[in-house]
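Lab manual, section 2.4: Encoding a predicted structure.

Procedure: take the sequence of the chain (399 residues), apply the prediction step described in section 2.3, and record the output as C-alpha cells. A sample record is shown.
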Amino acid sequence: MISVAEAIQIVLTHSGKLQPVNMALPDVPDLILGENVVSDADIPPFDQSAMDGYAIRFADLEIFDQLQINGEAPAGNPTLPPLSAGFAARIFTGAPVPPNADTVVMQEKVTVNGSFLFVADPLLKQGANIRLKGSQCKQGAMVLPAGVPLTAGAVGFLAMIGRQQVLVQPPPRIAILVTGKELATPGQPLLPGQVYDCNSYSLQAALKNMHLPAPTLHKLPDDLAQITVCLTQTLPLCDIVLLTGGVSVGDYDLVPQALKQCGVEIMFHKVKQKPGKPLLLGKKNGCLVFGLPGNPASVFTCFYRYVVPAIQQMMGLPVYPNGHSRQLATEWQKKPGLTVLLKGKINAAGKAEPLSNQESYLMDSFAQADCLIELPEEQTRFEAGQMVKVHFLHYPFTH
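Recorded output:
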C-alpha cells in the first residue's frame, strides 16, 4: 500500500495535458485557451463614436458661433465624406467618425435650430467621445495568452476581434464501467439480493457539474470475459476510464485481472486511506484507468480526491492536490495508519465540520457535504480549531 500523498503524485505524473483542438466559439465556455491569440485587425477598425451626438472639428468652436449640420452617420453605414470647416455631422454610437472630425459632442450638450447647432459644453475637450482606431488592440498584437479560462467575457472578446474558432484544451473523453450483477436500475422493483445502482448516477452528475460532456456508460455483470471485452473496446476511445466495484479481493473482484488481460499497466493498487483503500490506478497508452471501490461513498471520495485533479491537469485547469486549509469545527479521533477522508460541511463560521454517518456505504451524508476533510495517517487526535486540509466538492473546487 502507498500513502495518499504518493498516490496523488502518481496520478498527476501520469495525467498529461491533452493536445489542443480547434473548437467553435459557442462550444468553448469554461474550457482553457490552448493558443496565444493574435488579433488580425485593429479594434476598433476605425475611429468610432462613443456617443450619440455630433461630429465636429474642435478648432471650429473658436471660429464659428454655430455649426451647420450636414450628413448623418448611423452605426453600420460607410464613413461620411470629409467634414468641412464650419460643419457638423449627426452621428450615433459605434458609427465611423468622418474624416477631419476630431471630436464628438453629446447630443445633450447642443442646441439645434433648424439645420444649425450651438455647442453648449464648456468642458468639452478635443478628441472627446471618440474611440480611436486600434485603441483596444492593434493588428498583430497578442491579445489573449494560452492558459486563460474562456469565460463569457473572453468568448465575447474573441468574437469582437473576428475569431470564429480557437484552439482549446479539450475535456477528456470519459467512460464509466459499473460492475456487479446485484445492481438494479432506479425505478425498477428490487429482486432478492439487489440494490439500486447509485454510482453511475453520482459520477455522471459530478462530471456534468464540471461542465464536461456526458460520459459513455457501460453496466456489466461480474463476468471476466464481458469486462475484458468492454475494456478492450473502450480503452482506445477514452482518456479516462472509471470502473466501479470489482477491485477488492473477493472472488468476484475481477477488475485487476481484466485490466492485466487488456495490457493495462497497474501503477498502484491500494492506498492507505479510509474510505477507498482498494483504489487502483492503471494506464494504457494515453488512457488513465481508475478502479474505484464499489461502496458509494468510497467511489465519491476517490473521485474527488484523485479523478478531479487528473481531469483538471488534462484540461490545463488549476489543480489543488493539497486542498485548502480550514479550521476543524469539532474534535475528532481516529486510529493511526490510514489517512481518513471525512464527509464534511463548511459551517457559518467558515470551519470544516465533520458530518455524521461516515461509513463507506452511506450516501445520505454526502448529499449534505460540500467538502472532504483530510486527516493524515499517523495523527490520531485532532482538536477543534486545528488547521486541516479540505477538498471542496463543488466546481471549480476553490470554496
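Check your result against the sample. The chain is about 15% helix and 30% strand.
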